[in-house]
């Protein structure tokens, strides 16, 4: 905590009280509840859960409320809370192929085994303000959830059946998945660690990088093989029981992006994959993540690294919104001593510059 002058702690305490007052807002209006945020601001809750890497809707909603709707502040709060929680173990890898889907679309095949499932989406709305929402005139009769009753195959399996796409997620034998929440980042990174970092990276940053790859700042021409949203089961191995037990189901968004690869001396021409997976309903983030993932595999495929989205150190080191916020916002905290040193340095350099200018002016003119 910075306490710049005597009385600084009192000022900070008063600032906290003022923040709480502004958070409550107009007392003539009912206070917004956690249940309301979970039920009606679900996409905000999902983003906070994803980038804080903690799946708990109530806690994410609490963070949104505490942060007055500031998403990055809410993510910061929830991630900090996450560090206080005990860890009982690692779950088994979730089987996204067994997902019970609520939404499933593909831009590569019109007719799919299991069909396309549009689900809840803004894709076909007019993006116009809806005045009916001012008076809660929207449909208030709940609809039944339209989801698959059983798992459906992945679109990438169609290409895999013809041998036209690379294998899915191959890792070296004996590879143990890392954990970026417990291990410092080191470059170059294995793909599993890189995907972890991207999964909790800032959506806006990844969106900008993904957009840059489509504008020519990476040599890929991607297609959305499939985006799916739904619930998967999470299981934990119990050594004392000798089998895994289900911990429940979580909602996730998964995207597989496919891109053409002309082949190399070791690999035939085929499609390659970019992968994105995040908590909740967040397909924009999953799509951006899959674009960046594919761009970051440039070296793996012998492609030239010519764009920011292909530079692993650049992408991963700047993708975390909590770290980025810390570096940017710390600039508004007291830096009096540092600035005085800079001020003295600039004054000295200015005196030396002016002295040199005066010396040049006093020199006698050269004889003709």
Automatic annotation (TrEMBL):
The keyword Lyase applies. It comes from the Bacteria. One of its GO terms (molecular function) is lyase activity. Keywords: Lyase. Pfam families: PhnI. InterPro entries: PhnI. This is Carbon-phosphorus lyase complex subunit PhnI. It comes from Shinella curvata.
């Amino acid at each position: 905590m910075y306490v710049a002058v005597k009385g600084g702690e009192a000022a900070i305490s008063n600032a906290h009280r003022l923040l709480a007052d502004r958070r409550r807002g107009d007392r003539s209006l009912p206070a917004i509840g956690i249940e309301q945020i979970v039920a009606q601001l679900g996409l905000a809750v999902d983003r906070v859960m994803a980038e804080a890497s903690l799946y708990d809707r109530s806690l994410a909603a609490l963070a949104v409320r505490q942060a007055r709707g500031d998403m990055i502040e809410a993510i910061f709060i929830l991630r900090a809370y996450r560090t206080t929680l005990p860890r009982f173990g690692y779950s088994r890898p979730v089987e996204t192929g067994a997902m019970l889907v609520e939404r499933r679309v593909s831009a590569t095949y019109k007719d799919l085994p299991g069909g396309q499932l549009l689900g809840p989406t803004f894709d076909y709305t007019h993006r116009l303000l809806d005045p009916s929402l001012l008076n809660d005139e929207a449909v208030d009769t709940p609809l039944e959830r339209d989801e698959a009753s059983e798992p459906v195959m992945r679109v990438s399996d169609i290409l895999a059946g013809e041998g036209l796409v690379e294998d899915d997620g191959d890792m070296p034998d004996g590879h143990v998945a890392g954990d970026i929440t417990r291990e410092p980042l080191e470059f170059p990174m294995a793909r599993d660690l890189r995907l972890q970092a991207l999964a909790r990276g800032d959506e806006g940053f990844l969106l900008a990088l993904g957009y840059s790859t489509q504008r020519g700042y990476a040599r890929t021409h991607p297609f959305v093989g499939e985006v799916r949203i739904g619930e998967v089961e999470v299981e934990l191995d119990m050594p004392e029981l000798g089998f895994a037990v289900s911990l429940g189901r979580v909602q996730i968004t998964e995207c597989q992006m496919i891109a053409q690869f002309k082949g190399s001396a070791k690999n035939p021409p085929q499609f390659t994959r970019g992968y994105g997976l995040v908590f909740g309903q967040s397909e924009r983030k999953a799509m951006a993540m899959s674009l960046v993932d594919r761009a970051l595999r440039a070296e793996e495929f012998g492609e030239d690294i010519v764009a920011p989205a292909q530079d692993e150190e650049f992408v991963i080191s700047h993708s975390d919104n909590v770290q980025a916020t810390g570096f940017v916002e710390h600039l508004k905290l007291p830096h009096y001593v540092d600035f005085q040193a800079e001020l003295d340095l600039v004054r000295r350099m200015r005196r030396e510059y002016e002295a040199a200018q005066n010396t040049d002016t006093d020199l006698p003119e050269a004889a003709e």
